[in-house]
Amino acid sequence: MKHCYSRFCLLLVLLAATLAAQAQIEPAAQYTTLTPAQLMTWTATGPTAVPANVSTVPLATRQNSLAPQLNPAQSFSSKVNWCPDGMNNFVGYLNEQPQFNLYNFTHWQYIDVLTWFASPIGIPCRPWVEAAHRNGVKIIGTVFTDGPGFIALTQKDAAGNYIGAQKLVDVANYYGFDGWFFNEESRLTTAQSTELINLLKQLQALRPAGMEIHWYDSMLPSGVVSYQNTMNTSNAPLLQSGPDRVSDAMFTNYFWSGTTAINTAVTTAASIGRSPFDVYSGADIWPGRNPQQLFSSTTWLGNYYTGNSPATPRTSLAVFAPNLTFNGGLNNFNSNPADYANFYKTEVRLFAGDDLDITTADASGWQGFGYYQPVRCAITSLPFETNFCVGQGKIFANNGAVAVKGWTDMAKQAILPSWQWAKTGATTISTGFDFSRAWYGGTSVKLAGSLAAGASTTVKLYQTKLPITATTNLDLTYKGLAAGASSTRLALYFSDNLTTPEYVNVPALADTLWASTTVSLAAYANRELAIIGVQATSATALTAYRFNLGKLKLYNGTAAAVAPVANFAATATTVLTGQPVTFANSSTNATSYAWALPGATQTSSTAVHATATYATAGTYAVTLTASSAAGQNVLTRPAYITVLAAPPTGTNTSLSFDGLSKYVDAGIINMSGAAFSLECWVKPNAFKTTSPYISSLMGIEDGGVNTLMLRLGDAGIDASQVQFVAQVGGSTRKLASVTRLTAGQWTHLAGTYDGTTMKLYVNGVLDNSLAATGSLTANAPFTLARNYAASRGLDGRLDEVRAWTRALTAAEIAANTCGVSATSTALAAYWKCNDSPALTAADASGHAHPGTLTNMATSDWSTDVPTQCPTITATRSASATGLQVQVFGNPVPGGRAEIEIQGAQNQPVTLQVSNALGAVVWRQTVAASAASRLSVTLPGAAGVYLLRASTASGTTTVKLLKL
Fold first, then answer.
1. Which of 316, 564, 858, 935 is most open to solvent, judged by the fewest CB atoms within 10 Å of its CB?
2. For position 11, what pLDDT does the model report?
C-alpha cells in the first residue's frame, strides 16, 4: 500500500503528533514505555522495572464449543488480533483512575490477542492484562521504534547471542504478558535487516510456550520498507524462512479490497508450510481512512470467508484502531462522561451489527464481527463468579452500598456476558448495563420495560462448560421493581438439550433493596451447563418491569471462605477545610470494616464507605481494616489526604492541575483568521518523562490535529521547552522556545501570529520566531491544561490565561503580563482564574466562554500566584462618583504601570504619582476621551508610590509597589 494510507506507516516522530500518540495518563506508569536503550539495560531489580505493573492473573483456559453458539456454523479456525491505536494514551494507568470516561473494552469473548500498541517499546499495563487473562485473551506488547532503535536491539553479547531477544523475553515474563508485536517501519540495510531477522529467530528459541511473536507487514528482508497488504513471497520470510520459524503470526497491512490479497495469503502460507490462520489479514476500521469502512456494510469483512460464510474463514483477522468507538467521533464519551450510553451502544454495534441484536443477522448494512466470529468460552470450571462490573462507572458499590464518584480500573472488570445482547421473545424488554445500580463496582445487568399478559423475554447471558454435580449451588444477588416466581426466572441450558432450558424461579422481593438467594442445582447433577440466561415473564400485564443482576456465583459444596483484601480510593485527595471527602471502599470478601481517620472531625467509622471532613489544614493518613470470618486485612495510605485552607472569595488565585484528569473546558471558541495570540502564566510542578512529552497549557486540538496550542514538550524537543503550534495555511507549524522552563517557577508565555511570522515570548522577551503564511481555521473546543488526551495534561498551575484574535505587540506583552482590560480589542477570551470557590472559571472578556472545571474541585484554586502579580487588581472607589482605578500588575513590572480608569463620567482625569515622602514625581491630565487604558511612568527607585486620580466630582487613590 502507499505509505500515506497506512496507520502503522507513521514514523515515531509523526506518531507523537497524531491520533496514535503514546503517553501515560498516570505518572506511576512511566516505565510502561521504554526506549531501546532502556530495554537493553533493563533488569528486574533496576530502576525501570515497575513491580506495581506485574500481573499475577493466569491466562484462563478456553473451551471452544460450537454447539451452544447462536450460530453453530461459525468456525474457530480464524483468530482475531484486536489492536487499539495508542493504548498508553487512553488507558496507561496502574491504579484506579478518578475518571469515568476512559477507554473500556467489554467483548473479550470474540478476540484471541490484544496488541498493546505503543512506542518505542510498549509494555501492557497490568489492569488490562488481568482483565484479558480472566477471559483467556493474550496481550502482547509492541516494539515500534526507529531504525537506530532496531539496530540497538540487535547488539550481541560475547557469545554471539542477541541481547535484545533475551531482554524482550525477560520483560514479558516479569510483567506476565504474552509476547511482542514488531512494527519496523524504518529503512535498514540488508545486513541490518538480516540481523533483525536473526533476532526474531532467536526469540523463537528463547520464548516460553504460549508466548507469541507477531510481525507487521512493513519491512522486506532486504531492509526496504514496502507494505505488501498481504503475505506473499516477498515478505513471507518474515514469517517462515525455509525450516526456520521467524514469527508466530503476520499482521498484514490493510490497503486492499476484494479477495485477491486474502487469496494470495492463503496460497503463500501453504507454500511455506504454515497455516493460513497464522496470517492476520489487516483491517483499519478508522472512519474514512482505508477500504475497510465500518458501519457501512460488511462486504469487505465477508472477503475473509469463502462465499461470505462464517463456517469457512480463510485467514485470521487483525483489526486496527477499534478505539474508534471511544474517540472516532461516533459519540462524545471521551470528553463527556454523561455520554456513556452512546459509547457502550457503539461497542455493542461493533459486534452485534446495526440492529444491536446478536441473535439475528442484519438484513443489510453492518452485520457485526459477532456475525462471523463465535464466542470463545473461558467459563470451564467451578467456582465461577461474576458481579457484572465493566471496570468503570459513575458510582462505586460494595455489597450494594454506594459511593458516588467517577472511576475506571480494568483490573476490577468481571467476566462479562458472552453475548451483548442475545434476546428473544417480547421486544418490550430492553437489556444492558445499568450504571446507576451495582452490587460491586459500577454496573449491574438490567432487564427493563413492560410485559403483556403471558409474554416473556429470554436473555442468554453466558456460554459455559460447567459440569454440575449433586453438590453444585448457585448464588444470585438481585433487585428490581417486579421480581418473583411469576415475573423472573433463570433459564439454564444444558449440553444435552440446548433447545429447551430448565427454569429456576427467582424468589419474590419484599422491597427494592438487593436480595440474595441460593439455589441447589442437584436436580441437574451429571449434566453439563452450557448457557446461563434469565427470563422475564408474567401471567398478568406488567407496565413497569425491572430486574437487576448484581452477582452470580456457581460452586460445589459450601462456598469457600476467602480472606478479605482491603482497598479504597478517595473521591479527592486534596480538599479544603470543611469540605467532605468520601473513601470509596473497593475491598473484596469482607463483611465488616473499620476506618481510622486521624485528623478528621470523626476519627473512626464502621461504614462501608466512610466520609470525613477536616477542620485544620495539613496532610493525613487513612487506614482501613477489612474483616471476615476468614481473617482481616489492613491497608494504610500514609500522607494520603492533603487539606488546604480555602482561599476567600475574590482572592487572587491560580488553578492547579494534576497532569492526569483535571482540565478546564471552555467550550467552542472561534479563533479563525490570519492573526491570533495565546498567553498565560504557568508554573509546572514537573515535566513529562515519556513520549510524547507534552504538557498542554491552552488551545484547540480538533480531532487530534494540532490546530492552535501553547504547550510544553513534544517529540524532538525537551519536555521543558515551550511549543507554540498552529495549523496555518493548511500546514502544522511548530515553534519551540530556546528557553527551558524550570519546575516550581512561574513563567509568563505568549505566542503570536501576524500573518507572516509566529513569535514566542518568554517573560515578555522575544525568545524565538518562525516565518509562516496563511490563515487559521479553528472553531472548536478550547481547553486549559489539556488537549486531545488526558496524557497530555499539565501537572502544575495556570493563571491569567488569554486568547486573542490579533497579534499582540512586544510592548503589550511586556506591559500587560498581569492583566488587561476586559474591553481590549480582539480579546476573544480571558480567564483571570480568580473565581474561588466556584467550579467555573469566568470569562472576563464578556464573550461568554466560561471554563468548566472538569474532574476538579474547589480545592484546585490556589493562592500560589506569580510573584510579579500578588494582587492582580488594586482598586479604590470614590463613594460619590464611583471613580475607579484598576492596576494590572502590582507590584509593577518594569517602569510603567498599566491602569484602567472607570467611572470618570466623561470628565477629564488628572493623574499624579507621589513617593513615600509625599513628593509628586509624575503628573498628567488626560481628556475624557482618553481616560480609559493608560500607562503611568514610575521612577527607577523601588518603593511604595501613591497614585491619585481626580475628576471635577471625585478622587480615588491606590498604592503602587515598584520592585
1. 935
2. 33
Minimum mean pLDDT among 11-25, 561-575, 602-616, 864-878: which range?
Answer: 11-25
Distance CA 725, CA 692 (A): 15
CA dihedral in degrees (477, 482, 487, 488; nearest 10)? -20
CA pair distance 849, 840, nearest whole angstrom:
10
The answer to whether 23 and 791 are in contact (CB under 8 A) is: yes
On the 0-12 / 13-18 / 19+ scale of CB atoms within 10 A, 545 is buried
Q: What share of the chain is helix, strand, coil (3-state, %, to 5)?
A: 15, 40, 45
User: What phi-psi label fits residue 77: left (phi over 0), alpha (psi between -120 and 50 degrees) or beta?
Assistant: alpha
Is residue 548 within 8 Å of 616, Cβ to Cβ? no
Query: What whole-number distance in Å separates Cα of residue 607 and Cα of residue 614?
Result: 18
Task: Give the three cell numbers for residue 89.
Answer: 494514551
- Between CA 418 and CA 461 the distance in angstroms is 6
Partner residues linked to 139 by β-bridges: 114
Q: What is the pLDDT of residue 294?
A: 85
> If we measure between CA atoms, which residue out of 405, 423, 521, 490 comes closest to residue 97?
405
Asked whether the beta carbons of 709 and 787 are under 8 A apart, the reply is yes
Alpha-carbon distance of 389 to 399, in angstroms, equals: 13
Q: What CA dihedral angle connects 419, 423, 428 and 431, to 10 degrees?
A: -20
Q: What is the tens place of the pLDDT at every residue in 582-612?
A: 999 999 999 999 999 999 999 999 999 999 9
What's the rounded Cα separation, in Å, for the pair 718 and 743? 13
Mean pLDDT within 10-22: 32
Query: How many residues does this entry show for the chain?
Result: 963
Question: Do 901 and 885 meet the contact criterion of CB atoms below 8 Å apart?
Answer: yes
Beta bridge partners of 381: none
Query: What average pLDDT does this structure show over 504-513?
Result: 84
d(CA 304, CA 317): 8
Strands (DSSP E) contained in 419-455 are 422-425, 429-434, 440-441, 444-451
Nearest to 101 by CA among 433, 329, 342, 333: 333
Cβ atoms of 819 and 837 closer than 8 Å: no
DSSP-assigned letter for residue 652: -
Whose cell is 476538579? That residue is: 856
Using the structure block, give the residue that is written with the C-alpha cell 500515506. 4
In angstroms, the Cα distances linking 848 to 43, 667, 668, 827, 833 are 54, 10, 10, 12, 15
Q: Quick one: average pLDDT of 745-763?
A: 96
Distance CA 90, CA 250 (A): 26
Task: Write b or e for each residue in 492-529: b if 16 or more Cβ atoms lie within 10 A of its Cβ, otherwise e.
Answer: bbbbeeeeebbebebeebeeeebbeeebebeebeebeb
DSSP string across 123-157: PPPHHHHHHHHHTT-EEEEEE---HHHHHHHT-B-
CA distances from 339 to 334, 346, 395 (A): 9, 11, 15
- 279's grid cell: 496470517
What distance in Å separates the CA atoms of residue 509 and residue 486, rounded to the nearest whole number?
Answer: 11
pLDDT at res. 293: 82
Q: Which three cell numbers stand for residue 437?
A: 445500580
Half-sphere exposure of 812 (CA within 13 A, CB side): 18
Cα 472 from Cα 466, distance rounded (Å): 10
- Torsion on CA atoms 899, 900, 905, 907, rounded to nearest 10: 40
Contact 227, 189 (CB under 8 A): no
| pTM summary value | 0.81
Dist. CA 390–CA 135, nearest whole Å: 13
- Distance CA(949)–CA(470), nearest Å, equals 95
From the list 450, 468, 458, 670, the residue with the least C-alpha distance to 554 is: 468
What backbone phi and psi angles, to 5 degrees, belong to 898? -90, 125
Confidence band for 873, pLDDT divided at 50, 70 and 90: very low
Contact status, residue 774 vs residue 730, Cβ threshold 8 Å: yes
